[in-house]
Amino acid sequence: MELMMYGQVKADEAEDQTMDHRYNEFKLQAIMSEHKKTITAISWCPHNPDVFASASADNLVIIWNVAEQKAVAKLDNTKEFVALIQLLEIGAHTINKEIWYQQFLPLKLLLDKSKTNSEQDPQGSKSQKHVLRPESLEGTDEEDPVTALEWDPLSTDYLLVANLHNGIRLVDSESLSCITTFNFPSAAASVQCLAWVPSAPGMFITGGTEIILTYSRKKYINQEKDWKTTPDSQVGVLRIWNVSRTTPIDNFKLKKTGFHGLHVLSSPPKKKSLSSHSPTKNHHTSSTSEAVPPPTLTQNQAFSLPPGHAVCCFMDGGVGLYDMGAKKWDFLRDLGHVETIFDCKFKPDNPDLLATASFDGTIKVWDINTLTAVYTSPGNEGVIYSLSWAPGDLNCIAGATSRNGGFIWDVPKGKMITRFSEHGKNGIFCIAWSHKDSKRIATCSGDGYCIIRTIDGRVLHKYKHPAAVFGCDWSQNNKDMIATGCEDKNVRVYYLATSSDQPLKVFSGHTAKVFHVRWSPLREGILCSGSDDGTVRIWDYTQDACINVLSGHTAPVRGLMWNTEIPYLLISGSWDYTIRVWDTRDGTCLDTVYDHGADVYGLTCHPSRPFTMASCSRDSTVRLWSLTPLINPLQINILADRSWDEIIGNTDRAVEAGAPPLLCGKVSRDIKQEVDKLSGNTRGKKLQWFSECLSPPGGSKNLWDLVAVIKGQDDSLLPQNYCKGIMHMKHLVRFKMSKAQELTTVKMSKFGGGIGAPSKDERLKEAAEIHLRLGQIQRYCELMVELGEWDKALSVAPGVSMKYWKKLMQRRSDQLIQEENDDVIPYCIATGDVKKLVTFFTSRGQLKEALLVAQAACEANMPTPQLSTSNGSFNPDGNNMEDYNELLHKVSKELAEWYFQDGRAVLAACCHLAVENIELAMAHLIRGNELELAVSVGTVLGESAAQATHYALELLARKCMTVTTWDLAADLLMMTPNNELQLVKLCAFYPGCAAEINDLHEKCNLPGVEECLQLAETAEGTGDLFETIKYYLLSTEPEKALPIGIQYVKEQISSSDWTLDSVCPYLDLLSYIRTERLVLHKCSEFRNELLILCGYIGALLAIRRQYNSIVPALYEYTSQLLKRREVSVPLKIEWLSDELDAWRACTQLVKSTDESPYTPPSDSQRMIYSTLVSRMQEEPLKGLIGPDYVTGSNLPSHSDVHISCLTGLRIQGPVFFLEDGKSVISLNDALMWAKVNAFSPLGTGIRLNPF
Description:
- By secondary structure, this protein is α+β, with helices and mostly antiparallel strands.
- Helices cover 29% and strands 25% of the residues.
- The longest helix has 21 residues, at 881-901.
- It holds the Pfam family WD40.
């Protein structure tokens, strides 16, 4: 199973966000899951950025190491609820359990006594003295919970305390006295969290909630009118304070929800520096030259606030980094669940929407293309255990809660329109809306009833069970049949068309309570059930029997999902943190994934992409997965244009033991019907529709829309949501202008700008006025600039000259760029400085904005002003259409690279197709290992994509070189021109018996094995080495090719002028010798030499392709083989070491530090590297230069931790297991390795096949 993309975090985990410095973008780096309860406090080590501590509601404190992404120590005897934890560094940073107390004592732990209860403290709280209560509560029994505590970083005695209702106090913990009480501007304000500002002693910030009150008049019976106030909404307010003032310095209303946590970064995140377009510092004064303008400061910054960044966490799950100086978000993830997610469902008529139900009392609806929440329910529902979309386009969701019964939520209107209370105060564990009869909704509850009602609340049936009912599911083949799962370990089936309240069937067999049940969508009468006994059982209603038991989970089973196309494919999720994929025909577990960090609860299948599924978990994430790798032969059958019988079948054929996968669902049948309606060449549409069916929703639809535009399809046929994705360059500006017209009535306020201006120097202002009256306009302008009055200076600057006005505009834009101020945009556009504006956007990671500006310039929507000068018309420097077009392609490449390095190769390809760079689009698909999609798109695009399509077909053929798909590999290679050599390699590697080998030879139009032996001997006699090697490999004695080929390669690399092109064809051909022959004892010397030569040449190929992550590993691999095995090759370990050092030095891959500053390469290193480069020559497919990044490469894994045997580092993203079943490398490294060296990194002689 392949992880595709990542959803939302976090309730009971530690999470680490880091900035991608190349794109100024925050990315999730790690999710670390050890706490079983909600995390209540987090504190970073002040002197080690890799270490932090966390505490949870179960009184557990954990010390984490972020670099190693693991817990390094635990403290589980705090005995109290930990409200604050703060690390003080003592001694070294290395932590282990034995030296916990020596390293990290004293730990300052403050216990919130308001949260202590008799269960947590058997002695009760009477012996605990409450100290430092707010003055207003002294002498009373009233409680006012402490919501936040922070020690003063400069004192071990001073403590900042926030109470929920009575505000903030600075107290002396030694003398138990209050030093200062701080006042809020409104009685409706409260504080949830606070933090000191490390860079400004005495300054702190608070995060709180302010209730917005609505004033209205109410008409009473006596007709008198009076004012009343009602709470209207909440606002999350960030306030900035100084201990010298009792009122806040500034207030920022950041979100329509309260704060959950707050932290001030001790230093702001480093950002990508601007290019050489940034202005240089001017040291002259206004009396002699240009004025030096003051920096733009807000009033409160000028007062006392240094620039600072606050990490903000909100009650609705939002997380962001707020720049307090610029008053804008550097990063904001707007919404997210903050607790366990129990259920998830795709919207039936719009599968781009995914709904989730959570312990936090909300349902959220996500756009899976942007992975953002677009709707959220009102909340305050207790726990929401289950949800169900209304059928069709009703746009409603039914929800099941722990305390408020069931409800129907109108999603667009955001209102609850119906509630069901038949279960009383008992929790409802499951709710199911019938999709065959939209008027019926079923609920099951802890009261032992499964109730069937109409949507208006009329009860149709009440089915009594002997214990709590946890799950129910409507049959997809019979609208009157429903199954239930019960705590009494049984599965029941009820038939609604009768008046009986007794079940038609009762299935017994589970040894613990049954939770969910699911009917098969493709096999009538088949259903499955998941139980706390850790098994999934398959039941046949027609036979009244259990037909299979799926064993493998080690904890209760919760999530269940049938695939809607492959009738025997079932997916289950469990409390053992895993998702398992089953072949229900024989009970085989096809795959197990461990990426979730906690119990897996909900599973759901995408309605129109049946091999895309979503899962949700107690780790509060939603994850999207692709099941396509499990049906690869089927996908290749479509590409190879096999008959319909090998693609689509009926259920009976598909469930036969050992039958290959066949599509049996509605989506595939609909595609076949549409293809059958077409006339002429239907291959293109067939490839497109099946590609969209089998691909995950990460941009494949967008890609096919762009292909249609390039192929000349009429724009009117483009889908309505085309403008939401990456558009072709000819549409981009047009769609954006249309959007702008829609927004003309909306006044938009810009970020930043401040709420005042710096104080003015009265004497300079007076002098400026005098210069103006004397007609000295330029001097006036310079003084206004010095005073920061840019607008006044610019308004009269044309009176000097238009050239001076433009120069002044450029100076202003330079200053604003230095300040990273959005106000720079109109200045750049007015002066026609497109390049500067594109650079500004690019430097901030706003690549889509940069692309739009570049495209607008290409369409002449930004004509440079023709400014008159004394020499005639003004001609801007180099700003012509050719420059703009070059700029457009440059920005498009940058945006594509951003998507690609984020693990989204399909969207990267879309960026290139948008500017019709087909070569790079195909290259990114191949480098992302989207081979099937590359072949499909390349086939439709035709000649312009032919070279890349043929390479993708060759890689796919290598993928098919397994036990059951050799014929498919041959079919794929036959789709390429000049395919004889590729077919030779296929037949040479085929491991069958002589008769089977001859059959494959015949299919590939090659001579039989005996004839090949004769041809080899003939070619050897004539001195044709390549033909000799080729025919020996195809013969009954392939090992005879080894000494001939290896000797030739050794002679080549012994010479001084050899190149990769002179040896690669021979080594590549030799690498296809059948494995069972290569590993023979008599071939050991030649095998060792072949592995060493392939390793060395692979290292050079990796350098040529810029596979930087595996170059050192290939050199090390080659050196180790040289060291350990008796061989005679013209290579020395010292030479390899020198070459690796030279490559590192000359490509500046050695990281400089304070202890070891960067040193330039020596002359000898330059010479060595120059020799290497001369041997490499050019890469035939230039677009393939650069590392591979498969989908999901940047996604953090939870419990599935693997260390790469190549790098020794933890692998992030998909892994690839080597032939010993234990050693692993990242899938990216495996793909790159296999493209330059066919043999495994373990040195066994086994070929690598990660494709």
